[in-house]
Amino acid sequence: MVLKYGGSERLASCLANWADKSKFDMSVLGLYGGGLLSKELDQNGITNYYLEHKNRFEERFILHKRLHNFLSQKRPDIIQVHGSYAFTRVLPCAIITNTKLIYTIHSKYTLQTVPRLRVMVRIGSMFCEKVVVVSRDLEKFAQKGVGIPPRKIVVIHNGVDLEKFNPKKGNGGEHGWLEKRSDLTMVGVLGRLTDAKDHAGLFKAWAEVLSAYPTVRLFLIGDGELRQQLEKLASDLRIAASVVFLGDREDIPDIISHMDLMVLPSKRESFPISLLESMAMRRPVIATNVGGIPEIIKHGWNGYLVPPQNPKALADAVLKFLRDRKLFNDMAIEGFNSVKHNFGSRAVVQKYEQIYTELNPQQTHTA
């Protein structure tokens, strides 16, 4: 885990921020380095560490040595690891130091495509106290696709910090990225610039939207390895003037509050926190019908679902929003209510706290 604004990193931050401080001493470790999230954790008084590591085979021994030293010095009662590759790195050190281990699966793509990793996780799960999955879709995959025993698996949906992502706190002033025009429609996309998020498919849909509504602007919140490629694609499709690359940001709630619509065009997802954050800010959402997203969105009631990798369907959905904003704004209200009642961070953290308490009835030091 790198201390950047990814889904698993935001969950780790959420747990550290919201856990009962009288019962749990929480800290966060970035296995593969630091990032913007480290600054946020510092501001919230959360102890955090990170190990410098380049993902090369010859440095794995060094990583294991540093991690072993860290666990030996800090002596956490429980270590919760997010992600499959990180799990394989942490597992040997947890066994050697006799540290109880919880493994959270956030995605199935890597496990689906790397058989060797799948075998390692299946074997490694025998040494875990619990394997947490963030959606029912992942639960089925963990059992049938990986072979993890059902008794080990716990489903805990991701949650969102409803104090931070609060529509009453947003829209807080002037911004250099914000063009103030009354006739401008602003559409946001929150996510890393990676293949899984399918910004390329969105750009193809956007070309059709732009031809019908020239006063729309697309704001990409996040950065990633595909940025240059996507900038070129935007130029090739002649939509570059309407697309704004904001990069990694710390003021995400305020940015979302300025958007008229949020879109998640992913090819694959597990249980996206970015979608919960947009709904918590009472923004209308359009998302692809993949992974655990149907566990969040009931189509036509609290959001709008489209098939993945279908630019025409995505364009039609955005055009439908532009033609019938009341329909989508009504969905946004229901989306806000559903997130508030089902996916608030307090309820999510309490479920994790229950696991921590069962594993270690005394006060718990968790990394």
Walk me through the structure.
The protein is an alpha/beta fold and 367 residues long. Helices cover 43% and strands 16% of the residues. The strands form three sheets. It has a six-stranded parallel beta sheet with strand order 9-8-7-10-11-12, sandwiched between helices. α8 (199-212) packs across α12 (311-323). The longest helix is centred in the C-terminal third of the chain and has 18 residues, at 325-342. It is globular, with a radius of gyration of 21 Å.
Q: From N to C, what is the helix and strand string? A: HEHEHEHEHHEHEEHEHEHEHEEHHHE
- Distance N to C terminus: 12 Å
- Low-confidence segments, ≥5 residues, pLDDT <50? none
Helix content: 40-55%
How are the strands of the biggest sheet laid out side by side?
9-8-7-10-11-12
Strand content range? 15-25%
Number of helices: 14
Secondary-structure class:
alpha/beta
How many strand units?
13
Average pLDDT across residues?
89
Q: Biggest sheet: strands, sense, closure?
A: 6 strands, parallel
Gyration radius from CA atoms, angstroms: 21 Å
Principal-axis shape: globular
Structure at a glance:
It is built from 14 helices and 13 strands. The protein is an alpha/beta fold.
Write the SSE topology.
Blueprint: H1 7-18, E1 24-30, H2 36-43, E2 47-50, H3 60-74, E3 78-82, H4 84-96, E4 100-105, H5 109-113, H6 115-124, E5 130-133, H7 136-146, E6 153-155, E7 185-190, H8 199-212, E8 216-221, H9 227-236, E9 243-247, H10 252-258, E10 261-264, H11 273-280, E11 285-288, E12 304-306, H12 311-323, H13 325-342, H14 345-359, E13 364-366
Helix pairs in contact: 3-4, 4-6, 8-12, 12-13
